[in-house]
């Protein structure tokens, strides 16, 4: 490795030069990350090994071409040789590449076998891809939540928003609620999807794996350093494929346990936050007036619905129906509430994400926005009755 | 392009425009039609690439809706693959195979007419999907379900268009096989055929083998959508990954369909301008045949991340790595052909050398991608985009430019403008690297492909890449100007055109008579053929 590295750098050609100049350009990011798991480190080493072998081969091949182009040209008055065959040479340049390939295949096999060993996990997390967000479920902890692009990035990334992405911290790589995991524990990820194929990729973990509807894929990671690691969906999944990032926060064991306890407390106590179980009764019963519902509804719509149905309700038919002027939307409120709670087709069930007041607000909002005018309101109590 | 010079042949082209071009059964005219159509589609697909690079010039969404962006990436690929690269190679096959093997025409001339004339209609349908409710296909050219099933009207129309393209390709391929196997001049044994003919023979078999597989895959999509089947839906007992297996069983040989004829072209050009026989003719033939065989057993390296069993991943990794061996043999043979030759560097040779170097970069990144555990990082990133554009643009497309410059004097009877040709080459070779080389870095640093907007740390390389893209796109206009100029006039080309050229096509006049080799030439020895000592 070291020898080839020095050789490549000295020859200073192509990729070799550019990578040898690494530190100067490091802020631009031009090489694979070493990552923070044992797997990602071995993947990085493998990558560098193969890269340098390729640089050396490339240097030799291009060097020969260059030499030939300089020396074997008619303008130098040479006469062309007429040789056109040599079995020995042909055998040599068949066998030598074979040996180089075998040298690469051995470490590659070792890493691949390690990656496939998903047994003996300490923590198991089920990851489900949706258009366009991720759902995380801690299998043994009874914790579940959705994670989607943060509001700030979402505002800036709208077409011709006129806002500068450079002003947003972690533009497109930030979420409203990150995945939290413990360090130095073997985490097993179970990956699936609800609608189309997605792909879960955090470069620092050393791999990506497809999330496929109806099937469960496995992968694992053991993160060695606490920190925040960012990634995003890597498989084209429709209009907002670029806008479903992944943020993983690795915490020490104590901090992780504290976080788990906090999540449990929130799930049981405060209805505002994502919670599967029905919120506490008192919080729901209070009726809200039209203005409150509309205001809150607009917020909820922006966060949950606008990605597909668009901020102005025109949708993206036929997959994502138009809400503006829709007979269904202004029809019986119960049907609208039912779809929001339970989903239908590509629409994810939002009953677990939104509390009764959120659902009531957003349903009221879509029935009275984009030119729709039912004039009526839906109260949290109606939603609770429909659950 | 008339045959006025050769009055010993009884018939020139029909005088009426419709008779000549719409009803033509002449391999040269059909070849010309294919080539012009491919050039047109190259600019249609290129315009889409310009939209992509313009939106990616800086972070944030400035120009187009993300969904329209997805339509651009999807249609760019479909147009370039099925509209530009494949028809261009078929056009070359039509023009060159008969005159390289001493045949009067293609074996099945009427079917030849039909193969071509399907194309404009298929692409009219394909491009019309932009105007349909919901817009054109936007799920990637690979058309993976379930995403593919979310399209509107474009879905059945695009599938119909792809079926038509498949029919056209299969008919073209059958014609090539029938011509090569039945119509060679006496004495032209298989192992005396020019490499371009050999590579096309093998390519034609690949097309016949895999286009029906694509047809099957997209028909299953159609029945899943409209007739209640569940081939690719887990809810009905199917499997979305099965589609990917079927698609890539077509898709990987398809990649070689777009590169094997390029090998043939380069194997013709390098000996001509090195004034030296092709090194290792028979090993070149065996290498192409090995690559074609291996192309059928490596498909799943496109889907390492779908969650295959370990044994499967190991098999596909090893098999994929093996392809490097015959590919390496070809590159080494080209270098050995150049070695101790007496080279001159006219435009075809420049593009051919550019091909060897830049295709090799694509090949080396291909080895990296073959390493399955590392591919878990590279997969679906800009690293892959860089890889296949090195193989397809600086590979396939550069070989097409090389071929065009090499044979334009033969086709038109005029020398092209060498100065403009060199400008075209040097601008292309510089800008194409500015365009695609930084994409390696983007991919390694973590930028996924098929995204219209990106995190700000990817800004600089995207800007560089976009600038390279615009410049590369503009440079191609020079080529159009060279071709127009060359058709309209220029220095008279000799029959042999290039000092070092060998082979039957150079025994014909420039331009060749409308009907050539009506009496087959007799080939006594391999002297004077490609690869023979001079």
UniProtKB/TrEMBL annotation, chain A:
Sorted UniProt keywords: Copper, Electron transport, Heme, Iron, Membrane, Metal-binding, Respiratory chain, Signal, Translocase, Transmembrane, Transmembrane helix, Transport
Coiled coil: none
Sequence intervals crossing the membrane: 50-70, 91-113
Cellular localisation: Cell membrane; Membrane
Cofactor(s) the record lists: Cu cation
Domain Cytochrome c span(s) in chain numbering: 292-370
Biological process, per Gene Ontology: ATP synthesis coupled electron transport
One Gene Ontology term of the molecular function aspect: copper ion binding
Matches recorded under NCBIfam families: CoxB
Designated name of the protein: Cytochrome c oxidase subunit 2
Organism: Alkalilimnicola ehrlichii
